[in-house]
Amino acid sequence: MSSGGLKSIVVAAVTQGVAEARARIFGHVLNPTGKKSAHKILRKKIIGDKVAQWYPHDIRKDDPLVMARLQQERLSKLEMYKRRGKGPPKKGQGKGAMKRNKGK
Predict the structure, then answer these.
(1) Which has the closest alpha carbon to 13: 32, 37, 40?
(2) Number of helices and strands (H, E) in the chain?
(3) What backbone phi and psi angles, to 5 degrees, belong to 90?
(4) pLDDT along the chain (104 residues), means of 10
(5) Does residue 32 contact residue 38 with C-beta atoms inside 8 Å?
(6) Which pLDDT value is given to residue 2?
């Protein structure tokens, strides 16, 4: 009966030694407890730079002339709306103010 216990101890030691050697050779992380580990996520390559290369550079952020032209277009469009009477209302004369003053 004691030989069965000794045999199981030797088998467990050999199995553990083989697992450690395999982990060392193939670069795996040994996790004998089986608990969750972030190693799977951390060993992945970082892909942020690669993803950033897929998208073209936005010239509007860097060029002040482009931003000035866009701002001028916006202002001219707003002026056109105001001349037609479709611009934003003056402060205190919008929908909310009309609803509040309706009951008085």
Answers:
(1) 32
(2) 6, 0
(3) -70, 160
(4) 78 91 89 84 85 80 86 94 90 81 68
(5) no
(6) 55
